[in-house]
TrEMBL record:
PANTHER family: HTH-TYPE TRANSCRIPTIONAL REPRESSOR PURR-RELATED, LACI-RELATED TRANSCRIPTIONAL REPRESSOR. Signal peptide: none annotated. The lineage of its organism: Bacteria, Bacillati, Bacillota, Bacilli, Bacillales. This is LacI family DNA-binding transcriptional regulator. GO terms for molecular function: DNA binding. Transmembrane segments: none annotated. Keywords: DNA-binding, Repressor, Transcription, Transcription regulation. Residues 5-61 form the HTH lacI-type domain. It comes from the Bacteria. CDD domains: HTH_LacI.
Length: 365
């Protein structure tokens, strides 16, 4: 077995003091973000975070002993529109609440951003475990790790906190959705979504690109679509409208827009409508997640259905498994998503040859 990685080793490689390493790895203030990122990166490379580390005084539930604590903390940081009112994140939490009730366990929802405040509301000895929902800031995850109690992450993972995680199978679902579009004749496809926003967005983009390449279709991607389109619906609509209009003027109007989630797809439909572009007659649009808001627009949106309540329930199952078997191998669980075929996709007549691909596909009558 290799020797334990020490803070001094990290400090030596980073060119900082051991004190700075300690502050950075515990999420404390007093270290610049640049230095903190450098220290965390080096610590990850050296394998510091995969060592068993339980904070002094922290209670680690043992097999058969885990049920003495009866409260699960749900960590839902109020960032990136992650909140109980969300038709996506809120439904995942609903699934957790029902599963915890069934197990006769208590729960507490924390939305705090600051790791200093975060520790102040916790009594580790009374916690069965923690479930992080969506993006959780790295400093907070470092504090969670110090508690030495089971932690599950839903739709997020972090190299600095190795733990069980739960995702929708983004790659598989996005592949099937893209292949469906190709199958009904689309050859001029564009992906819309900030691929640095979340791992799920990047995986959906990767599947989209892979599907095109496997079908011999050039990936003629508008790079602007892969960056942030604006945080508000109005900003997204304006940015999408600007890019689509530029492509139309250049004779490169897409036949289909594959959006990273339903919210982007809804804004894309509104942007196209504002330009007098018909959906799906002129441009088809797809989404991902199947949130309640898809019924706010017409035509009905083709998307990927994500069983959000099932995700929440399954996260609770994973946590209880970890409590009962704390030394079991870590798991990354992928749940399937189902393509829902609605009215926002048109069948088109694809070009007969790749040379004809410079021309817009001809719609079937």
């Amino acid at each position: 077995m290799s020797k334990k990685v020490t803070m001094q080793q990290i400090a030596d490689q980073a060119g900082v003091s051991k004190y700075a390493v300690s502050k950075a790895l515990s999420g404390q203030s007093g270290v610049s973000q640049e230095t903190r990122d450098k220290i965390v990166k080096i610590a990850t490379q050296l394998g510091y975070f995969i060592q068993p580390q339980v904070a002094a005084g922290a209670r680690r539930p043992a097999a058969g002993d885990g049920r003495k604590a009866n409260t699960v903390l749900i960590l839902l940081q109020n960032v990136r529109m992650q909140n109980r009112a969300s038709s996506y994140w809120g439904r995942i939490v609903d699934g957790m609440i029902e599963a915890l009730k069934h197990q006769e366990l208590n729960m507490m929802i924390v939305t705090e951003h600051s790791p200093e405040h975060f520790l102040g509301v916790l009594n580790p000895s009374g916690l069965l475990g923690i479930i992080g929902v969506g993006h959780v800031a790295n400093p907070v995850l470092l504090e969670v790790r110090k508690l030495g109690i089971p932690c599950i992450l839903v739709d997020h993972e972090d190299d600095t906190v190795p733990c069980d995680s739960l995702f929708i199978n983004n790659f598989d679902a996005s592949s099937r959705l893209t292949n469906y579009l190709i199958g009904v004749g689309h050859r001029r496809l564009q992906f819309i979504g900030d691929i640095s926003f979340a791992e799920s967005f990047f995986e959906r983009w990767l599947a989209f690109r892979t599907a095109l390449e496997k079908n011999g279709i050039p990936v003629d991607q508008n790079e602007s679509f892969l960056r942030e389109q604006g945080m508000s619906p109005e900003q997204q609509q304006d940015r999408i409208a600007q890019e689509v209009e530029s492509m139309r003027v250049a004779g490169r109007l897409p036949s289909a827009l594959v959006c990273a989630n339903d919210s982007i797809a809804i804004n894309a439909i509104r942007a196209l409508t504002s330009l007098g572009i018909r959906v799906p007659e002129d441009v088809s649009v797809t989404g991902f997640d199947d949130i309640d808001d898809v019924f706010q627009v017409a035509p009905a949106l083709t998307t990927v259905h994500v069983d959000k309540e099932a995700m929440g329930s399954r996260a609770v199952d994973m946590l209880l498994r970890r409590v009962e078997a704390p030394d079991a191998k870590r798991e990354k669980l992928l749940l399937s998503g189902d393509v829902v075929f609605r009215d926002s996709v048109a069948h088109v007549q694809p070009p007969k040859t790749m040379a004809d691909n410079e021309l817009s596909p001809r719609r079937e009558p």
